[in-house]
Write a sequence for this structure.
């Protein structure tokens, strides 16, 4: 493995390689991936919070979309399952 130092390509030290591997493992862990998935889900829910205002009535599609978002993490137990999640399509 190589790295760029002062515009020169040099070999990585064992320490560099160990750091990269631990960093990669952390980013690919279930805990990190589920955290990021929940953040995205929460942001999508916030974008549609106004749909549930007291002076509006949500359509069945809007209700289903929000329920699908809330349920998106149910049953996920591995990083691969998190990677396979597909978000529902927002109704117009």
């Amino acid at each position: 493995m190589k790295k760029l130092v002062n515009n020169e390509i040099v070999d990585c030290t064992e320490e560099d390689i160990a750091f990269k591997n631990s960093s990669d493992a952390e980013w690919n862990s279930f805990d990190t991936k589920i955290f990021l998935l929940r953040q995205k889900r929460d942001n999508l829910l916030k974008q549609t919070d106004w749909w549930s205002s007291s002076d509006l009535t949500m359509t069945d599609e809007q209700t289903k979309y929000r329920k699908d978002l809330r349920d998106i993490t149910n049953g996920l137990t591995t990083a691969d399952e998190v990677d396979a999640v597909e978000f529902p399509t927002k109704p117009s």
Strands lie at 2-5, 8-11. The chain is about 50% helix and 10% strand. The helical segments are 14-27, 30-47, 60-70, 79-83.
